[in-house]
Amino acid sequence: MKLDTDLYEVLGVAKDADQDVIKKAYRKMAMQFHPDKNPGSKEAEEKFKVAAYAYEILGEPEKRAKYDRFGHAAFNQGAGARGFQDVDDIFSSFSDIFGDFFGGGMGGGRGRGRGRSSGPSRGSDLRYICEIQLKDVISGLEREIEFETDESCSTCEGTGAVKDSEVDTCKTCGGAGQVVTSQGFFSVAATCPSCRGQGKVVRNPCKACQGKGRTRQGRKIRVNVPAGVDSGTQLRVSGEGEGGFKGGPAGDLYVEIRVRDDERFERHGLDLLGKVQITYLQAILGSEIEVESLGGQVKIAVPPGTHSGSRLRIEQMGVPSLRGNGRGSLYYEVDVELPKKLGKEEERLLREIATSKGESVLEPKKGFFR
């Protein structure tokens, strides 16, 4: 691929497209240039690889941010996207995408859907939803998360059989771990129902895993959530996903951040917006008031002549940039409170001011109905 090729143009999306739009665009291209739909076409295979490379970067918020800032230079010399060795590598990396195409456990005859018996293979990537408060976005935090995942059985080392016992080749799939059927343009591979994708039939199953070769394990890890994250930010923890098969490497864990709404402030990018109420005298004459921020009470100046709807600003008290480029601002929208009832002295003084300025105001009511 040429170094000046725009990855947004590759997928045919706008630079401000959200992650759902980017994913749908890649799915469409992957379907169009799928090798099984274009047998023997080197051009289609190359477009298939280029689309995968574009999605690998734009489909991950952190890599996308680097690309938006530095372009392809951000990923030279192993500084980001790893690229793909072959088509099977693409199927392996984006199993969730191709699983949607062909149904769970299928991969167009390739990649993750194939039998596990052929040798070591990588475990699946996992996703974990982590909810944090808005105040945590300001400072960042370390969060302990707990989840369960499948691992190779340590007793039988993933074979599913008692050590040194005999294992037969599955007669249904011939040891391939999958059965292949043709559907139009595609050769669709489904997990073998007899051996459940293992390619082998165990005579003497391991008691620890009941012959499955896998056990469910609880895991507890600590994740550093950096300041400046937003809902949808994904943090990648390498090697903490599902355990590999037959000694293969583990998948990755993607921690997706969800920021809870805060009743005091609205977030607008790096800026925060709150509301504050002041008296009409503070609005007319100006004042210095205390307001609440995510870091505690702070003072802010109210200029004379402030009216309802005005915004007061405190610089560098908003959300920190995830890229380390300073912080946004903290704004307060002003609501000027007008008194519903005036004291006698207050009313007298205001009437004197109105008279001195030649203002026309209502005369005070007298008698019983005052």
Summarize the structure.
The protein is of the alpha+beta class. It contains 9 helices and 15 strands. The chain is elongated, with a radius of gyration of 32 Å.
Write the layout of secondary structure elements.
Layout: H1 7-11, H2 19-32, H3 42-58, H4 61-70, H5 87-93, H6 95-102, E1 126-132, H7 134-139, E2 141-152, E3 167-169, E4 178-183, E5 186-191, E6 200-202, E7 214-225, E8 234-237, E9 253-259, E10 266-268, E11 271-279, H8 280-285, E12 287-293, E13 296-302, E14 311-314, E15 330-337, H9 344-356
Helix pairs in contact: 2-3, 5-6
Task: Please explain how this structure is put together.
This protein has nine helices and 15 strands. The strands form six sheets. A four-stranded mixed beta sheet has the order 10-11-15-14. A three-stranded mixed beta sheet has the order 1-9-8. The chain is elongated and about 105 Å long. About 7% of the residues have low confidence.
